[in-house]
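Q: Predict the bound structure with S-adenosylmethionine.
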Amino acid sequence: MSSNALHVPVMLQRCLDMLAPALAQPGAVVVDCTLGLGGHSEALLRDFPEARLIALDRDPSALRLAGERLAPYGDRATLVHAVYDELPEVLDRLGVPRVQGILFDLGVSSMQLDEAGRGFAYAQDAPLDMRMDQTTGVSAAEVLNTYPPGDLVRILRTYGEEKFAKKIVDAVVRERAKEPFTNSARLVELIREALPQAAKRTGGNPAKRTFQALRIEVNGELAVLERAIPAAVRALAVGGRIAVLSYHSLEDRLVKQVFAAGASHTAPPGLPVIPEQYQPRLKLLTRGAELPTEEEIAENRRAAPARFRGAERIREEVAP
Ligand SMILES: C[S@@+](CC[C@H](N)C(=O)[O-])C[C@H]1O[C@@H](n2cnc3c(N)ncnc32)[C@H](O)[C@@H]1O
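A: Predicted complex:
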């Protein structure tokens, strides 16, 4: 895979088409909650010349690199170092009460995976860090060296869907008692040894699932997302649209649940007519999760697990 292919924004045209009806108006504000290398953001600024962009990332390197890329757009782009569940505070600080578009492109960026020193990649030996923001929080090594075995098993099973979680954690606990983990190569080797022969022959690098699980835990990814999606829906003006790209079934399930709840009425059962205050606040713009095309996956492997969902805000919250 060329590094160019790695940097192609996932389902870009679909994201632009979904947000278009909300953004083609003077004064529209669009928030990219996951700026990364700024691929989606740049396309939003280019295609919607009347819109202003607010873009968030928790990774200071992403803000630096995307900042250079988006510099030609001047003050149409405001980049903010924040975790995306801080969206309400960010909008408050900027004096923007409501926005017309919101995009989430979840997970890690190709830049984070490419930078060996960050410890996200199992293919290179590096310090086991995996923090998207290295200025705060605990590293993957600390998780591995200090968490009780039961928590590690739960993390590997739930976030990594690792069938051999118990075997791997038994080996980790045995090894960490001899010497704490610092680098990825020792963990990769241990996983390779812990897995049965048959499991090693299928499904790519056997360390992939454990690394994904540790990354999700280190960055609190699901807990943050659980707060962020409802907050984003609340920040939308009526007619505003939200688009989310997920790469993990648990992320996609969470998005699906929040959208489905917003698209359902909240009336107590048995009312013959649903009063306004109980009417749905959202209209779903995707039937189920949309997937990337075969052609896109052939050109950009990172798109393969993507699941895309969108919704439109159709009603204000009415106090009951
Ligand atoms: C898949 S990349 C985005 C790529 C981007 N759409 C592009 O086209 O270049 C995800 C980005 O979101 C950031 N990110 C992940 N979780 C975050 C969170 N909870 N708050 C803020 N940024 C987050 C990561 O640091 C990463 O830079």
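A: Residues 256 and 309 are 8 Å apart (CA to CA).
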